[in-house]
Amino acid sequence: MNKCKVKDCQNKVYAKRMCSKHYTRYHRYGDYNIVHPKGGEIHDKTKRMIALHESGYSSREIANILFMKKNSVVVLLRHHKNLRRSPGLDIEDKIGEFMLAKNNKVEHMRGDWYYDFLINGKKTDVKSSKLHKNNAYTFQMQSLNKTGKLKNLHKVDQYILVMTDDMSIYLLKSTDIKNPYLQNLSLRSHRLDKYPIEFLGCLS
Predict the structure, then answer these.
(1) CA-to-CA distance for 138 and 132, rounded, in angstroms?
(2) In a domain, 9, yes or no
(3) One domain for residues 137 and 183
(4) pLDDT recorded at residue 122
(5) Are residues 93 and 75 both part of a single domain?
(6) Final residue of a domain: which of 79, 112, 128?
(7) Which of residues 79, 104, 130 is at a domain's end?
(8) Is 3 domain-assigned?
(9) pTM of whole model > 0.85?
(10) Which of 52, 54, 191, 202 is deepest in the core (most CB within 10 A)?
């Protein structure tokens, strides 16, 4: 079993060679050694970050001033309600915890990577959709990149599809996607058993 890189921690690795606890601290505060102070107090570095943000500095500028990564700044500002967190990121976190609880080997990739997780060595991307008025789920598999081109969906091994109305999750192998340059995948709610998808469970 791969253990957390933090000294004296024996927990299983969740992401970036850290366990879930230390990765959460790193993700929220930019440092896995920072434990959120009791009584709702905010760390001095975070106070300065919020002050800079309220003064009009961008996340990138704040990161340069405080010698931090831009992603850590964004996460911290979202945590303290200064920036709205994308619902998709919350779902990703839940998927990671769900797959880890099922004894899978899970590595959470960085935000700018072309897939979200490495699960048991397989490149895995998470997609979510609500149920629309036409009784169908429509998953945006991809959008045009800066050069106006579409990527090959078969570069990813599998996709986890999340139906956000009941938080049920399904697995779709990329080899079952006939058109590798598909932009939107539409699934009829009353015909889910007709598609080559595997039910994995439901997120709590």
Answers:
(1) 8
(2) no
(3) yes
(4) 96
(5) no
(6) 79
(7) 79
(8) no
(9) no
(10) 52
- Other CB atoms within a 10 A radius of the CB of residue 137 amount to 23
Query: Position of tokens 């598999």?
Result: 141
Q: What is the pLDDT of residue 86?
A: 55
Domain containing 105 equals 87-202
pLDDT lower than 70: segments of the chain: 1, 27-30, 34-43, 56, 79-89, 111-112, 145-146
User: What pLDDT does 80 receive?
Assistant: 67
Please give the pLDDT value at position 177.
92
Please identify which residue in the block is written with the tokens 């001033």.
65
DSSP states of the chain: -PBPSSTT--PBP-BTTB-HHHHHHHHHHS-TTPPPPGGG---HHHHHHHHHHHTT--HHHHHHHHT--HHHHHHHHHHTTSSPPPHHHHHHHHHHHHHHHTT--EEEPPTTSSSSEEETTEEEEEEEEPBPTTSEEEEE-----TTS----GGGSSEEEEEETTTTEEEEEEGGG-S-TT-SEEEEEGGGGGGSSEEEEEE--
What's the pLDDT tens digit per position in 127-175? Answer: 999 898 899 999 988 877 667 788 889 999 999 999 998 999 999 999 9
Exposed / middle / buried, residue 101 (Cβ in 10 Å: 0-12, 13-18, 19+) = exposed
Kindly state whether residues 109 and 45 are assigned to the same domain.
no
